[in-house]
Amino acid sequence: MKLFTVHFRMIGREPEMVLVKEGFCWPAFFLSTLWALWHRLWIVAAGLLLAEVALDQILQAMHMGSGIRIAATIALALFVGVFANDLRRLSLGRWGGFREIGVATGDRIDDAEHRFLSKRSDVLLELA
């Protein structure tokens, strides 16, 4: 089973809920900037793109071989994969107006959402 954090906000009279998986994020590992853009994390996407370009430029200026450049790129991708969902949570809270209201478990995100709503619908009624 996977663990998800549950984030909630009200837009006017419409509630909105987002679940974010805990743990490593494979899409962010392989396609970091595109992953950030997909989730509308504009500042994160810009920072990732800047970090990738800066890393490449620094390693080129230091005349590092292709093996070191590949290893550094993989290390940056691992870093992004480990912290991507944490960056998403931070962005939801800081700039998205969401509040973390709990956790949910499930094999898939749909299962976790259903399980959370069936057991914790009282929380949503209090927030609405």
Summary of the model, kept short:
Helices cover 62% and strands 20% of the residues.
Describe the structure.
With 128 residues, the protein is of the alpha+beta class. The chain has one domain (2-127). Helices cover 62% and strands 20% of the residues. It is built from 5 helices and 3 strands. The chain has helices at residues 26-30, 32-38, 42-61, 66-94, 109-127, and strands at residues 2-11, 14-21, 99-106. Helix 2 (32-38) packs antiparallel against helix 3 (42-61) and helix 3 packs antiparallel against helix 4 (66-94).
Number of DSSP helical runs? 5
- Overall average pLDDT: 92
Can you count the beta strands?
3
Main sheet properties: 3 strands, antiparallel
Shape: elongated
- SSE series: EEHHHHEH
Rounded to the nearest angstrom, the radius of gyration is 18 Å
Overall structural domain count: 1
Q: Write out the strand line-up for the largest beta sheet, numbering strands in chain order.
A: 2-1-3
Question: Uncertain runs with pLDDT below 50, 5 residues or more?
Answer: none
Helix percent reads 55-70%
Strand content: 15-25%
Specify the structural class: alpha+beta
CA-CA gap between termini: 29 Å
Give descriptors for this structure:
128 residues, alpha+beta, 3-stranded antiparallel β-sheet, 3 strands, 62% helix
